[in-house]
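Batch job 17 of 40 flagged for manual review because the log was empty.
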Amino acid sequence: MARDMEYENNNIGYDHYNHQDAGGGRGIKCKNYELCEAVLPKWWFACKERYLCTTCHMMFGTWDFQGQKYKTGKGVLEISDDRECPICLEIKRGISQPNCEHTLCIECFKRCHYGDDSGEPSFPYPDIEDEYDDDQENPKWENDYPLIKIYNEEWNKWEDEKERKYDNENHLRKCPLCRK
């Protein structure tokens, strides 16, 4: 695949998580940006030779290992307007399935492929959340902020339940119409 300068110039995004890597936060949007919201650093294409983030490539692309194909998919998923979703039956903006030509609305696609994030516990001290994330092992959290222990217990329970559900709902990551 050749470098597409027109795509790069028309798809500049800002990534506040990787502001140093992406040249001050400016990078190139993943071709599935509307779905994943990933912004790639400017050097990405030179290294990977594609405009897909790692998550989209692993979940929806084609990849092999030592000559053996492990997954075949489109990689770049087509987005279209005014499509009836076969799950929620609403007419919305849709996205094609990775292994067939059927289309779901973006919300149902996310729910099927990424799972449901409802019930995620919220951090009890929003003003210090970034500081906590940077240094979770600091003993001051246990001594000075008693709700963090409860939050961590709730988070672990929620994460375990989400993982259990994800394992049991593997069939949801297939097209609801053709099961590919």
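Reviewer: the log was empty due to a logging misconfiguration, but the result itself is present. The first strand starts at residue 12 and ends at 14. Unflagging and moving on to job 18.
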